[in-house]
Design a protein that fits this description.
The chain is built from 10 helices and no strands. With about 180 residues, it is mainly α. The protein folds into 2 domains: about 45 residues; about 110 residues, Homeodomain-like (Arc Repressor Mutant, subunit A).
């Protein structure tokens, strides 16, 4: 890999899109409040660095271990299918692994179960949508694969400690350009 060039993927699944959103909000606030070009350059660099850090080009270049590749692929699969009711057995079938082996493999690499990871990922998407859109809570629930708003609200409160509406009210809405 030539260090004189910056490679930015055209399409990428981010492992933590909320981190990028936070940095972009900070850049937006900085531009509005301070107008300091140097600060804005630093924040833009931080966004690019975070994008690179979450990029598969960056992560896989240094470590080509097939186990890490499988773990990354499982996380990507979950992110791609976040709007569905994802089952561990479906993930195992998709990757050609035993449905009893896959959960232990995943826990070994992440420290949490596949189900916990799926739920946490769904809630990260929900938090971003609640704070950055005007979608109804039922639409947010549907967008992350919940058919029942009540079950979504219970799960959301269990993870965040706030109801979806309290969470939305706690965070200001900002438009990202």
């Amino acid at each position: 890999m030539d260090s004189n060039f910056l490679k930015i993927p055209e399409k990428e699944i981010l492992s933590s899109p909320e981190r990028i959103i936070i940095l972009m909000k900070q850049l937006q606030d900085s531009a509005k409040r301070y107008g300091d070009t140097s600060l804005n350059h630093y924040l833009t660099s931080a966004i690019i660095a975070e994008l690179a850090n979450q990029s598969h080009l960056f992560r896989r270049h240094g470590d080509m271990n097939p186990q890490y590749q499988l773990y990354d692929d499982i996380c990507d699969y979950i992110n791609l299918h976040i709007s569905e009711n994802i089952k561990v057995s479906e993930i195992a079938d998709y990757f050609g692994y035993n449905k009893k082996y896959l959960p232990s493999f995943f826990r070994k690499h992440s420290g949490i179960t596949v189900k916990q990871y799926i739920l946490q990922t769904k809630m990260e998407y929900a938090k971003a949508e609640l704070s950055d859109t005007n979608h109804s809570i039922s639409q947010v629930a549907y967008n992350i694969g919940f058919n029942d708003v009540h079950n979504f609200s219970i799960a959301f409160k269990k993870i965040t400690g706030l109801s979806p509406s309290d969470y939305r009210n706690s965070y200001s809405k900002r438009n990202l350009n």
